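Review this today:
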Amino acid sequence: MSENDHKPLLEFPTDFPIKIMGHNHPDMLETITLVVQQHAPDHDPSTIEVRPSSKGTYVGLTYTIRAVSQEQLDDLYRALTAHPMVKVVL
């Protein structure tokens, strides 16, 4: 394999978890779900994991999407990190 040949880190399609953290706002779940569904329209909202922080100030949301390309993941990460309700995306 030459230096210019590189194996992709992920093989698509793949189930891919995305963890999102932000302030615990009443509209957080609904708002972020809409952002995720713009990039992963087949996402099943019943699979979302919601974890409030110990004091309830923050909330962690985990979405497992069926990723079909690196471009899809990159676009989703950009949309999420730019959203004002989101503090961290992993």
